[in-house]
Structures are given as C-alpha cells and as structure tokens.
Amino acid sequence: MASDSLAGVPLAWPEQPGELPRRFDSRQALEAELQQLFPEAPGALSPIRGGRRQAETLLNRLQPERYAKGRNFLDGPVTRLSPYIRHGVLTLAEVRDAVFARTRSRQGSEKLINELGWRDYWQRLWQQLGDGIWRDQEELKTGHSAAAYASTLPADIDEGRTGLACMDGFIAELHTSGWLHNHARMWLAAYLVHWRRIRWQAGAQWFLRHLLDGDPASNNLSWQWVASSFSHKPYFFNRGNLERYSNGSFCRSCALREQGCPFDASYEQLEAELFAPLPAIRAVDQRNREGGRDRNSTRQGAPSAALSRPARRR
C-alpha cells in the first residue's frame, strides 16, 4: 500500500541514514526505488493507496445501511477501511463515530458496529493468548484429527493455478492488491482446509504474507473459525452460495463449470463427503489417548471453549 505524504505532519523521529526516503514525487518514483532496493521481489505496488488523506476519503463514503444489506456480495458496499485500521491510520473509535454520524437508527448502524467490535475482540484475545493463537483453541469438529491435514501449502494454491476460476481469481487478487473481500477469504480458507486438507496455520501464514490488513489476531482466529478449532462446526460452502454472492462471475468462465466442480452439491452431500462422523473419530482418539498415542498434541493446554466466537450462518 503506497502512502501519500501527510503535508505538515512529519514523523515524530528524525530521519536516519539508510532509511527508505519518506517523500516521493509520485507512486512511480516509489516503485522505482523499491525495485532498485529489492530487485528479486516479484510483483508491483498494490493499487490500494495508503495515507490519511485516502483513509478519510473512504471514511466519508461510509454507507452503513447499504453495508448491512449488501456486505456479503463481492461487489457489495464494503468499507475497505481494514488496511488503514490495521496500520493505525484510522482508529476504531474514529470509524465508530463516523458510522453513528451517518445513520439515523441503531438498526442501521448495528452490523458495521458489530464488525468493529469483533476486531476489538480479536485483539483482546491476542493479548490473552499471545503465540497461542497459532495453536488450535479447541479440537476440530470435522471428524478428522490434526494429523490428517498437510502442514505445507501446495504449489498450485500458492501460485494460483488450481484450475478453479473462483479460487485462482481470489489468489490473483490477493497477490496483486493485498486485499480480499471477507466472503472470498472465507471461501478460499474453506477450500484449503476442508477440500484440500491443509492445516489452517499454513493458510494463515500465507495470508499474512500478502494481506495489507493482515494481523495475527483477526487472521488466525478467523482461520480457526473456518477450520472449526474456534467454533462449534466447520464453515463450508457450495456452488450455489458462491454463485449467488459473486453474481456467477467465476462460474461462467470456469473450465469445470459443466463437470468437475468440487462445490457443485448440496450442503448435505458436501458434509458427508468432507467430514467424518464425529462419534467414530472420537472413539479412535480416545483409544489413542489411552494407548499414549495422541497425535493431536495441539489440544494440550488449549483455552476453554468459553472463548469461542458464536457461529455464523453459512
């Protein structure tokens, strides 16, 4: 996220030799400097502009009532304020006050205020858990043990060549802009964890490498919510859900649209395909524990389930 300068608001500490210059005549000048400093780094500047001026512009465009009604659609009226909140350009209190100033009723502001509340909640949990946010907070509710999931990210996912137009499109946007709509993040996370059986930690690390708004609190605990180690059931989706909230834009161009789409089934069918019966797997886990062979070591010392976030609807 390239920053525009804050006229008349210099940094509080003096510039030191060897630091990146603080002011550039243009974004092109900034990009040229970065290419010279990091010649091996792929990609280019994100199209998302940084700085207080751009943050205030977006803040002034807030439409809380429209957000509440259309936030789940990829082209819906989301705020795009998360990178500015993440890096301290805006405070949660500023955004809260702007929401209240633009709504006439509690109902109109409630959903957006709730989302700000969740962000604050994640940060407070991070203070409590520390590096524990990298460990499963509860046992998985997928019917599979932690050992059933791979610990590394496959190359086709990292490089965005899964063959699925939706997933490859999300990955391309992640790489080029450093931002994804929340619904796209959930779909992509669910695909990695439930369809590809990749540990959520690998996905969380991958997101943190690319997201401009990525921080371990919101990122990791949201991945755990999808995986079901921080919720009472796993989050997954089907093609109908994806088509509805993406307006079918990916499915129309997907080579697998007629045959081979892994999401083209009912929720009941996908649940039977993706997850094992919990009573059976728990019986196996119990026998393993009694025999001293508990492979799910991340369960040891996990915080109480009372910390769990209430489940969202699919």
Average pLDDT: 86
CATH topology of the largest domain: DNA Cyclobutane Dipyrimidine Photolyase, subunit A, domain 3
Order of helices and strands: EHEHHHHHHHHHHHHH
Measured by DSSP, the beta-strand proportion falls in under 5%
Beta strands, count:
2
The CATH architecture designation of the largest domain is: Orthogonal Bundle
Distance between the termini: 32 Å
Physical arrangement of strands within the biggest beta sheet:
1-2
Number of domains: 2
Question: What is the alpha-carbon Rg in Å?
Answer: 21 Å
CATH class of the largest domain: Mainly Alpha
Specify the helix fraction band. 40-55%
Quaternary structure state of the chains depicted: single chain
Supply the CATH superfamily name of the largest domain. DNA Cyclobutane Dipyrimidine Photolyase, subunit A, domain 3
Element layout with pairings:
Blueprint: E1 2-3, H1 27-37, E2 49-50, H2 52-59, H3 64-70, H4 82-86, H5 92-101, H6 106-129, H7 155-158, H8 165-177, H9 182-195, H10 200-210, H11 216-227, H12 239-245, H13 267-274, H14 278-290
Parallel strand pairs: 1-2
Provide a quick synopsis of the model:
This protein has 314 residues and is mainly α. It is 47% helix and 1% strand.
What does this structure look like?
By secondary structure, the chain is mainly α. It is built from 14 helices and two strands. It has a two-stranded parallel ribbon with strand order 1-2. Helix 1 links the parallel strand 1 (about 1-5) and strand 2 (about 50). The protein is globular, with a radius of gyration of 21 Å. Residues about 1-10 and about 290-314 have low confidence and may be disordered.
